[in-house]
Amino acid sequence: MREIVIEPNDKQRAFFESTAKYTAYGGARGGGKSWAMRMKLILLALTHEGIQILLLRRTLAELRENHLLPMQELLKGVAKYIAGEKEFRFPNGARIRLGYCDSENDVLQFQGQAYEVIGLEEATHFTELQFLALTESNRASGRMKERFAPRMYFTCNPGGVGHEWVKRRFIDRKYRGSERESDYAFIKSLVFDNRFIMENNPEYVETLNNLPDARKRAMLYGDWDAFEGKFFPEFDIIRHVKREISIPEGAIRFRAVDYGLDMTACLWCAVDGKGRIYVYRELYQSNLLLSEAAEKIIAMTPKSECIRYTVASPDLWNRRQESGKSGFDIMTRAGLTHMIKADNTRIVGWRIVREYLRGDGETPSLIISDKCANLIRCLPLLRFDTSVREDAAGTPHEITHAPEALRYALMSRTPRKKKPLNDFTSSVYTFDETVSERGFFEFIEY
Ligand SMILES: Nc1ncnc2c1ncn2[C@@H]1O[C@H](COP(=O)(O)OP(=O)(O)OP(=O)(O)O)[C@@H](O)[C@H]1O
Ligand SMILES: [Mg+2]
After folding, report:
1. How far apart, in whole angstroms, are the C-alpha atoms of residue 123 and residue 139?
2. Average pLDDT of span 259-286
């Protein structure tokens, strides 16, 4: 028999005692979040026979460092670690399984499984879809003798791809549909609440104090509004999204497609005489074969709508070795004519999207219909790439499709320039002949 003595601080104790369906803890750096999560799950396993617990972090490396190694140390002689399954088995039948969800679909591996308790460490690193998929597995496993209400525990900091869904539920407390406010509890903890750091490493507070202002407000004081890192801070739902959009007579209509079997995103756009672009319809669907995607796009376009062209991902022009056919061939044969290759220059393209969002003074140059739910959802979720300056992160992949289609759309209305990217002050442009309606484009200068 081994005795483990733990001394939670007041905030951690409140976290331990919460039995809400969803309890989140933290909101800033160093508040003892990971410790609290680990201990809470271990306490549950020790005190509830047969309980099935899943603890998740976004990546395997984080999981190892943050939880696997400390738990192996702590649970020596208490629970048996089964490396193949990444799980701790307790003598009372309880089980803590450790997992990670590197990509959007990794979450599917937990489908069909049942856990009374799921712990999501650094919840803001997970997308809302991943969270929702996990709620499906948060149910009675049938291995417990007592009645136990399934629940999820979260730790979190502001920022990250999940910032919005965590903030809405736990901080802003705005609920939709069948969500119930009483199901959500938030226990805010700051580094000052963590006795261990304040006594052993007080200089850490100084480190947080020296961060750039917005980050400091978020990480030291847990200010969720201070968050920085959005790729498009220019995007503003009130300014850019409209319920009723009236497309002027004579506007040129076109479509932009980012095709993938995992997701096909297609945007229907119109451009008025001043160069303002209206995105008025979207398709966002997974598992469409090329021909099916083309048919769907055609079916969603009313016959009365005259579409000038469809700009699409350049890789559709690559020929497949086996068939000798390209995606372009297949889609054209399925009836999607007037396809043109998108300019896939990413950084220039993102700058152009930014310019359209910014617009001219009061008026943005891009208006999005509120029917384009996925474009509206994904634009604010995009984050900066951590290694390529000015590029958007490619993960989670699911959120990149609609913004990429938007980039293709706006690039197709923007004159190409001859000079290389590093001389972006020049205003020497050429037109892409396949799209040019001379005199129609507005020049965008940087
Ligand atoms: N009640 C406690 N008793 C002993 N040590 C603690 C306690 N709470 C936290 N600690 C220790 O304080 C340090 C920081 O805690 P922890 O890693 O849990 O913070 P965190 O909020 O997860 O930090 P980060 O924001 O970096 O993820 C760790 O060394 C942890 O073991
Ligand atoms: Mg932590």
Report:
1. 19
2. 95
